[in-house]
Specification:
Blueprint: H1 2-7, H2 15-25, E1 30-31, H3 32-39, H4 43-55, E2 59-66, E3 69-76, H5 78-97
Antiparallel strand pairs: 1-3, 2-3
């Protein structure tokens, strides 16, 4: 049981990062504004969590201009998908043991 808890990925301990990854797992890409609205976060709060996930190579960031306006979208990387699925499997195992 102890190994299950310590095996959980620390990058996903935050409910916000859990939410971000959950959204990205079921969508090809999601814009910053959409993530902000879905998770009901401030720009700064969302940006700091996205930055942490980007540093861990769990998400990919695409910056572009659309009609002369900056647009940033995010997607889960292959490494991020693998890590998130592993995290969820450990959570399931933990729940089944309790």
């Amino acid at each position: 049981m102890k190994e299950l808890i310590y095996g959980l990925n620390r990058e996903f301990e935050s409910r916000i990062r859990l939410g971000i990854m959950s959204i990205l797992m079921v969508n090809d890409k999601v814009e910053f504004k959409t993530l902000k609205e879905l998770l009901e976060l401030t720009d700064g709060n969302l940006a700091s969590h996205l930055s942490a996930l980007e540093k861990a190579n769990y998400i990919k960031v695409k910056k572009q201009f659309i009609d002369r306006k900056p647009n940033t979208s995010y997607s889960a990387s292959a490494e991020g998908r693998k890590a998130f699925v592993s995290h969820l499997k450990l959570l399931e195992q933990f729940l089944k043991k309790n």
